[in-house]
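Hey, can you fold this?
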Amino acid sequence: MTTHLKQGAKAPTFTARNENGEKVSLNDYKGKKLVLYFYPKDSTPGCTAQACNIRDNYQSYLAKGYEVLGVSPDSVKSHIKFKEKYNLPFSLIADEDHALAEKYGVWGEKSMYGRKYFGIFRTTFIIDENGKIEQIIEKVNTKNHTEQIL
């Protein structure tokens, strides 16, 4: 699965709720660089490795002017537990209706052990200060994701 979005395109705007139930919008990041990463599920091995890799290198992101937002179809309650358990210093978006994932073209049919289901394709979007997509990472290395981004 490949997103329909392309490098250099305007990032789709959104307003969604974070783990605290607060509204978060793409407009909140105007003038800043944003790492918007989509992941399938809280507290699963790959998603935990990815979140912890970003956490462990978070100061490097800030030093280079990046903000970070994680997005999954998990609930606010699930995000609170995930964030607290792993001490994540960035916000997580609860995209329970997968509207944000669909906007970014990362929601679709997947297959595991012969079973078909719908879910998120692990993808990261680097969005520049003007809201344009600077980079799209579709083949995410969960253990070394920071190297791919920075």
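Oh, and this one too while you're at it.
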Amino acid sequence: MNLHRLLQERATSDKPLRVGLIGAGKFGTMFLAQARQMPGVHLLGVADLAPERASESLRRIGYPAEQIAARSLGEAVDKGTTWVGEDASALLAHSALDIAIEATGIPAAGTAHAFEAIAHGKHIIMVNVEADVLVGPLLARRAREAGVVYSLAYGDQPALIAEQVDWARACGLEVIAAGKGTKYLPAYHTSTPETVWEHYGLTSEEARQGGMNPQMFNSFLDGTKSAIEMAAVANATGLSPAPGGLSFPPCGVDDLASVLRPAAEGGILHHKGQVEVVSSLERDGRPVFRDLRWGVYVVFEAPTDYVQRCFAEYGLVTDSSGHYSALYRPYHLIGLELGISVASVGLRNESTGQPTGWRGDAVATSKRDLKPGETLDGEGGFTVWGRLLPAEESLRGSALPIGLAHHIQVTRAIRAGDILTYHDVAVDESSECFRVRREMERTFADANPADLPAA
């Protein structure tokens, strides 16, 4: 609880943490809005494929023109200003950079940028959870070998869940379940960018005027983003998915301890130590009372009768046995909170969550019948959605990760609801992203997660 003081010391000594952002989308822009408020932090550069759009975003959130006028990274260092350009590699290679933030959301780009950052001895904060779930366990291992920090992004739900899990374990409490809330109905798995706005109560024109990307928003609705984020949580904490994936039980905050306990005790869990997402909607579409749509939670168990009595004495909401209780946070502020990762990584050399093994995977599942020759369009698209699986189940079935299900052709007929495999598609085996993924599978195939440290 001293990050702010340490940042102030950096500011006073004129030794700021120099930070570079790759990808100035919504998450990145929200971080930029707060970065200029943080003492001891210098935004060295912003790399984006549309630098003019990135510059406009900076101006819109309050950066004066002179602050973002640096013509080179060297000038940005000398004058304490910010460079904006297309060349992410130049930013990652610059000697003054301390921390790189990867926020493109594109698995292939995130993988390449992370390897570059590690090769140049830079800490890397991976906002790009899509890349983290595809190859993050291998990236984190490479970072540790290189003596730099690989970190999940605080403000995004996986890092916040990992923090709650760490809190419970540090208190000596066994974690029974952890996860987040979302808006979910089974029919959403077949939602497409053409149908997504009706589920959000918007017209296509309203969404267009708001600059909303239908495929991105659909990935939140069709279950893909939940699968990706819970795989990241499993890989970072040592918790694990249930066989077959998420069940999305309807559940409000007052019922977390009752619903998210083992099935043998009246709950829905397959096992203790499970990741799960709760729905803010009942299966008939009615809103859940006191839902957790925007929040995160951890369910924990009293280890003794004495602790169980303490739960009661201090007003914890428990299940009927009084044995299980929960802690939850109703909101997350995504990029506005990313400064916690920057400060933790830069000042303490500590991540805000990172993969410690390969335990969960997000795999491509068909939204409809697919014919040979059709092209998959990836996360949030028309063809597939991402289902959470235990890593060993994914590996055993040669499941196609959702992060590779972009711009590749189906080679044989697939029924609606089937999990796609490597044998069902024509993967470009020469692509770096594919090769790194296969290396990760080989590296962790024989690893025992119980032997790896948990976050």
